[in-house]
């Protein structure tokens, strides 16, 4: 459904992604894992055309969308929850959610449904965005993205820095999102989270795919994958 094919991305003169091929099929959960600076966030930005491809192709449902804009890709039903969360600090929780409905497409997710899965947001409904904890901000950012009823949700380190209870709650929420038929591309540093959620996993190292396989294969080769993630030594595919 969404894919990068042999993609190369530069920041100025620096090559940050080399020959990256990553694909998420319809309704699939894939995880992109790797160390700090491996190129995970860059991959998500390249998928939604925030960053241009120097080489390779960007695909949506087998169609070449390499030259389409961020807005076009968003209208196709691809939503990003960035690691910065980007909620509006001066707007209330309710107002932030209403911003999410501006691009509302009819579907499962409504403000009522979002508040049911995140009761914490219901309790904080009149609070300003800047009065929320990190976990609450993450819930709001995810809820806002869901209100567009995306076909595919890109999540950039959604559990980073959050308490284990909140991480478990988010894992349940992502499971529910997937059950509604939404595909998920999850960028994670926490292998425990990616192993619980994803069907397939890609390990990035120095801007290339150093390993990819199913979660069962990763379980069997966990030592190899962990050594790539911790030391950055690539052991091949
Ligand atoms: N705006 C930028 N300008 C130049 N280089 C950048 C920029 N953003 C990221 N980079 C570099 O690109 C490489 C990949 O960064 P990226 O953020 O994709 O990594 P990451 O795997 O998501 O890591 P992190 O977990 O730290 O976000 C790093 O070497 C980083 O320093």
UniProtKB/TrEMBL annotation:
Any one Pfam family here would be: ABC_tran
Per UniProt, residues of the ABC transporter domain are 2-231
- UniProt keywords, alphabetically: Amino-acid transport, ATP-binding, Cell membrane, Membrane, Nucleotide-binding, Transport
Q: Answer yes or no on keyword Membrane.
A: yes
- Report the InterPro entries cross-referenced here: AAA+_ATPase (IPR003593), ABC_transporter-like_ATP-bd (IPR003439), ABC_transporter-like_CS (IPR017871), BCAA_Transport_ATP-bd_LivF (IPR052156), P-loop_NTPase (IPR027417)
An example of a GO molecular function for this protein is:
ATP binding
Q: Which family does it belong to?
A: Belongs to the ABC transporter superfamily.
Q: What is this protein called?
A: ABC transporter ATP-binding protein
């Amino acid at each position: 459904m969404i894919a990068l094919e042999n993609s190369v991305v530069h920041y100025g003169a620096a090559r940050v992604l080399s020959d990256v091929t990553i694909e998420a099929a319809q309704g699939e959960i894939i995880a992109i894992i790797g160390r700090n600076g491996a190129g995970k966030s860059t991959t998500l930005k390249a998928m939604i055309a925030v960053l241009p491809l120097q080489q390779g192709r960007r695909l949506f449902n087998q169609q070449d969308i390499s030259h389409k804009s961020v807005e076009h890709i968003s209208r196709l039903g691809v939503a990003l929850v960035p690691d910065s969360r980007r909620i509006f600090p001066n707007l209330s929780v309710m107002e932030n959610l209403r911003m999410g409905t501006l691009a509302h497409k009819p579907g499962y997710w409504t403000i009522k449904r979002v508040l049911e899965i995140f009761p914490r947001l219901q309790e904080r409904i009149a609070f300003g965005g800047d009065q929320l904890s990190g976990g609450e901000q993450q819930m709001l950012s995810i809820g806002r993205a869901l209100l567009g009823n995306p076909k595919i949700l890109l999540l950039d380190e959604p559990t980073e820095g959050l308490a284990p209870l909140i991480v478990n709650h988010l894992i349940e929420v992502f499971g529910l999102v997937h059950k509604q038929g939404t595909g998920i591309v999850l960028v994670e540093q926490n292998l425990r989270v990616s192993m619980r959620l994803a069907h397939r996993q890609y390990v990035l190292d120095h801007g290339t795919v150093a390993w990819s396989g199913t979660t069962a294969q990763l379980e069997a080769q966990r030592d190899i994958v962990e050594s790539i993630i911790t030391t950055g030594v690539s052991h091949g595919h």
